[in-house]
Amino acid sequence: MNIVSLIKSLPGACSQGLIWGLLGIGVYITFRVLDYSDMTVDGSMATGAAVAVMAMLGGMNPYLALLLALIAGMATGLITGFLHTVLGIPAILSGILTQIGLYSINMRILGKSNQAISVDKYDLIVSLRYIPSAIIVSLLFCIVIIAILYWFFGTEVGHSIRATGNNPNMARAQGINTNLNKVMGLTISNGLVALSGALYAQYQGSADVNMGRGAIVIGLAAIIMSEVIFGRIFHNFALKLFAVVLGSILYFMIISLVLQLGLSTTDLKLFSAIVVATFLAFPYLKKIISEKRVRRTN
Amino acid sequence: MLILENVTKTFNRGTVNEKVALDSLNLTINDGEFVTVIGGNGSGKSTTLNAIAGVFPIDSGRIILDGEDITSLSEHKRAKYLGRVFQDPMTGTAGNMNIEENLALADRRGKKRKLLWAIRQKDREKYKEKLKELGLGLEDRTEAKVGLLSGGQRQALTLIMASLQKPKLILLDEHTAALDPKTAQIVLTISNKIIRENNLTALMVTHNMRDAIDYGDRLLMFHEGKIILDISGEEKKKLTVEALLKAFERVSGTEFTSDRDLLN
Ligand SMILES: Nc1ncnc2c1ncn2[C@@H]1O[C@H](COP(=O)(O)OP(=O)(O)OP(=O)(O)O)[C@@H](O)[C@H]1O
Ligand SMILES: [Mg+2]
Fold first, then answer.
1. Do A163 and B94 touch (CB under 8 A)?
2. Contact A162 B96 (CB under 8 A)
3. What is the ipTM, given to two decimal places?
4. Which of A46, A49, A31, A165 is CA-nearest to residue A92?
5. CB contact burial B42-81 (16+ within 10 A = b; e otherwise)
6. Which of A82, A199, B117, B187 has its CA 20 to 30 A from that of B43?
7. How far is C-alpha B107 from the chain's CA centre?
């Protein structure tokens, strides 16, 4: 292993982690706040990227392009929410259906499977060519988004989304329209995921129809690592979201490390899947083992 | 005033598991009336409360609350008029949210939820006052996650939540059944106090005949989806468990069978 090249790769891992941290926050809203395993993510990430890149190639201001990507992402969440709440399709399947459908839509938006956007010709907000500035800008994005979400989930509307995810029976008994709140949560979540995709497309200088594949797993990895490391010290909602961003940075650092250790980029998906499966299984196995111990001592 | 008019509910219609849970049920409850409900397992008590709350649609009949036909109103819309406390202490509160967040949620029942900060300082004082009345020390733990509370504490909190915005009707479905006897009595006393002090109209299911006799103004007994006994006024005050069991046998033609009721 080459320590020097590992250290050199860390700033890049940091900026990547910050951009994907927005996706992690989006996934946190569905997975943890709403208690909904939303598979839309893999599609909406690429939708965000495709919309932003095509809009900029068409001459749109890069910030407006981000806004457009955010709105497009929100629309994808709306579709999943519609499938689930109005048409009664199970949660996971609703997300998968949207994700599959989005592949065709993203292809239509892009016109071909990959569209490049050069930082030399376009005034991109973040680029891997200028990593220090990418780190600062994406960190600012994370902070602003976390601040907005902290406020939002402290409002009456935000509370009703939290209650819907925590205990839908209680929520309905308190007059909360749980279906509407699920749709709202999905909409916000996928908006953030698309925003992350749009920033990432700028960062790497292209949008690819496959770039969201496995994104949900990376988002989950960031969440789970954040909870394992910071779960006991961070109780405030804003800090929890920030921990997800830190988890995401850590994830990309670990990825740099395993790449240096000789894993190929195509091995990464298997690696991520194993990491997430292990961490998800951990609390369950711990419980089983402690129960066995109790039984033995009795 | 609550009126149930020929309310019928059949579960799993057209299958081998078909079950007529409510059979043309008729019931009128006047304002301020505290009604206790008893009956064997599967006699339709919970189904009645759930039908009123709109958990599922009924097959036929009408439900009228204060002159408004709420038969086809969705569950969350009816919640505006109803306070509910459930058998499982987990059901009535959000365990991941803290005490004041839960109270704030209940304080907006029936109101439009806005993009305003959910907990305001003057509400905090109000919530603390209400919690203090319980005498459980919860007023000093308003930022504790509700998931950390005991079953009895959660039920007491749910009772406050159900009455914070005065409901037209409060529905209590065996809300002390999951508690130990001592805690059950404390929660029952609190329930009675809240119902009486706020002059609430209440429908309380219990498996304890003694409690059904001791509390409330009127007693209903369910059997096979129908109300077979309806006792109020002086007659209820003089009621004994033995008389109740005898009356049940006379009216239903069977012996009263409910493991839990016999145990009490
Ligand atoms: N969701 C449901 N699906 C199918 N059958 C149901 C459902 N809810 C209730 N039932 C059936 O309807 C009948 C009445 O049930 P209900 O829950 O109203 O009884 P109960 O009087 O509350 O009894 P318990 O004392 O056991 O709580 C029972 O036979 C029950 O099995
Ligand atoms: Mg019942």
1. yes
2. yes
3. 0.93
4. A31
5. ebbbbbbbbbbbbbeebeebebebeeeebbebebbebbbb
6. B187
7. 18
- The CB density around residue B23, as the number of other CB atoms within 10 Å, is 15
**Cβ < 6 Å from ligand 1: which residues?**
B 11-12, 19, 21, 39, 41-47, 222
pLDDT of residue B263: 45
**Ligand 1 atom closest to B50 (CA):** 18
Q: Taking the model in full, what pTM does it have? A: 0.94
Q: List the domain boundaries for chain B.
A: 2-263
Opening angle at CA A67, ends A62 and A72, nearest 5: 120
| B130: its two tokens | 């209400």
Residue of A nearest to B171 (CA): A173
CA-B39 nearest atom, ligand 1:
21
The number of CA neighbours under 13 Å toward the Cβ of A226 is 28
Name all domains of chain A by residue range, CATH numbers in brackets. 3-297 (1.10.3470)
pLDDT digits (tens, 9 = 90+) for B16-75: 999 999 999 999 999 999 999 999 999 999 999 999 999 999 999 999 999 999 999 999
**Residue A271 and residue A251: Cα distance in Å, rounded?**
11
Minimal CA separation from A139 to chain B, in Å: 26
Res. A1 pLDDT band, cuts 50 70 90? low
**Considering chain B, what percentage of its residues have pLDDT values greater than 70?**
97
Within chain B, which residues score under 70 in pLDDT? 256-264
Considering CB atoms only, which of B90, B105, B118 is closest to A174?
B105
Among A151-165, A263-277, B78-92, B247-261, name the one with the lowest average pLDDT: B247-261
- Correct CATH for B2-263 of 3.30.70.1150, 3.40.50.1950, 3.40.50.300, 3.40.50.2000: 3.40.50.300
Q: Report helix, strand and coil shares of chain A as percent, to nearest 5.
A: 80, 0, 20
